[in-house]
Amino acid sequence: MKTINVDLTGIGMDITPAFSDGAAALTTLKEGTGPGSDFLGWLTLPQAITESEIDRIKEVASDLSQGVEIVVVIGIGGSYLGAKAVIEALSHSFETLLPRRAHPLVVFAGQNMSEDYLSELLAVMQGRSCACVVISKSGTTTEPALAFRIIQKHIKEKYGCKEAQRRIVAITDAHRGALKRLADQEGYKTFVIPDNVGGRFSVLTPVGLLPMAIAGVAIETLLSGAREGMPTCLAPSIENPALQYALARNALYQQGKSIELLANFHPKLHYLTEWWKQLYGESEGKEGRGIFPAGVDFTTDLHSLGQYIQEGPRFLMETVLSVAEPETEQCLTVESDPQDLDGLNYLSGKRVDYCNKMAELGTRMAHIAGGVPNIRIEIPRLDACSVGALLYFFEVACGISAYMLDVNPFDQPGVEAYKKNMFKLLGR
Ligand code: PA5
Question: What is the pTM of this model?
Answer without folding.
Answer: 0.97
